[in-house]
Amino acid sequence: MSKLERIIYIEDDPDIQDIVRFVLEDLAGFTVHFCSSGDTAVREAAAFGPDLILLDVMMAGMDGPTTLAALRTQPSLAKTPAVFMTAKAMPSEVTRLKTLGVLDVITKPFDAPNLAKRLQTLWDEREN
Fold this sequence. Notes:
By secondary structure, the protein is of the alpha/beta class. The chain contains 5 helices and 5 strands. Strand 3 (52-56), helix 3 (64-72) and strand 4 form a beta-alpha-beta unit.
C-alpha cells in the first residue's frame, strides 16, 4: 500500500489554512499544496499530483462539490481519494456529501490535533 504524502487542500479561509498548515505540514510532515479557490485547484491540482484531495464544501465562487466534480474530469485525478470538510454538520448533508464519492466528511470545527491521524486512517482504510 502506498504512503500518504501529498495533500491538496482547497479552503478559502486563511485562518483555517494556517491551522491545517501547522498540523499537516509542521507536525505531521505531509507535503500540502494550498488553494484558496476551486478555480485555482482545478488549474493546479494535476501538476501537484496529490495523493489525497481535502476540500471545504462552502467556498465563494466554485463550491466544494463543484470543485470535486471538475477535478474528477482530469484523468490523473479521476480516482484520487477525497475528503470534504464542512461546517454544515446536519446528518442529511453529510450523507448527501458522502454520495459524491468521498472517503469521509469532516465537520468543522475539526479536531486539529488529530486531523493528520484521521486522514492517515482514512487513507489506510480506503478501498482500492
